[in-house]
Design brief:
about 290 residues; Rossmann fold; 11 helices
């Protein structure tokens, strides 16, 4: 099996970004940029990153970035890629970097279409499980039993989180992977693998959000680690929609600690907690079955 080492790339990300304390996005962006290098162009829809990166004419990321409408990250990135291809520029990676709202919901049509066409772009979804930039509203990535401003106490979200990994595997894209900042070596290897793969690639990154999750900023890495260990967010890869690989064999322990560290789950009922555990284990069992198929 090929091994990957973090390239000795110069840092391009500047310190003057506007992320909240403990935000899981900017450590990920720093790692992404270290792996992809200076020949990278980003496309960002309306999302936290478009604000965090800086208001015009300022930009923290250090490479070109195109801001676009909420629903158009995938199609805008496809257009940028087409423009480079016409000019014969083949050594620049085009990245669509979008939140869960712009991926699971508002931008899903463009995402699915770009995946079906096998556009040569890398789509990275940083999933903080709600519309954080516009006031912590529920998205289809929000887990069952979570508080948001549109699922308040007494009306917590009652539906399971959308399984975006299974959906993208059904598109038979060349590469799909999940990633966590608590496993930076794994994350780096997946970024480098995605960089050298042609066609549509997607990385689903669970992005801790202390503000929207009502958690202490110091627990960013702890939350990322517990999410993987408790099977809330398994780390795996899918190649061509057919071959599945598990990267971390999670024990399933730590769900209670994960929930307790987040104020958004303080109103969760015992029944909702049992339902969440059932959903987690059902998806884990399906993941294990996929490894053998």
């Amino acid at each position: 099996m090929k091994t990957y080492e973090l390239p000795n790339q110069p840092e391009t990300l500047e310190a003057g970004h506007a992320a909240c304390a403990g935000c899981g996005l900017m450590p990920a962006v720093r790692l992404i940029q270290r792996c992809l290098g200076p020949k990278t162009v980003y496309v960002a829809p309306a999302c936290c990153f478009s604000v965090i990166n800086g208001q015009y004419p300022f930009s923290a990321i250090g490479v070109p970035l195109v801001n676009c409408a909420f629903e158009t990250a995938a199609i805008t990135a496809s257009g940028v890629r087409a423009g480079f291809d016409v000019q014969g520029i083949v050594d620049t990676t085009v990245v669509a970097l979008a939140g869960d709202g712009g991926t699971f919901d508002i931008g899903f049509g463009a995402l699915s279409a770009a995946a079906e066409r096998n556009e040569d772009i890398l789509y990275i979804c940083y999933d903080n499980e709600a519309y954080m930039n516009t006031g912590i509203q529920r998205s289809s990535a929000t887990p069952i039993g979570a508080w948001t401003t549109t699922t308040p106490q007494g009306a917590l979200k009652g539906e399971a989180k959308k399984d975006i990994g299974a959906i993208m595997a059904a598109h038979r894209i060349p590469y799909f992977a999940t990633a966590s900042i608590a496993w930076p070596e794994d994350f780096s290897a997946k970024l480098l693998k995605a960089k050298e793969t042609k066609g549509f690639r997607m990385i689903h990154y669970l992005c801790p959000c202390p503000t929207g999750w009502h958690a202490d900023p110091k627990h960013m890495i702890t939350l990322a680690r517990l999410a993987v260990e408790s099977r809330v967010f398994p780390l795996y890869e899918v190649f061509d929609g057919k071959r599945w690989a598990l990267n971390v064999n999670s024990s399933g322990k730590g769900l209670e600690d994960y929930l307790k560290l987040q104020g958004r789950f303080k109103y969760m009922t015992p029944e909702q907690a049992r339902m969440l555990r059932g959903i987690i284990e059902e998806r884990w069992e399906q993941l294990i079955k996929n490894l053998d198929s």
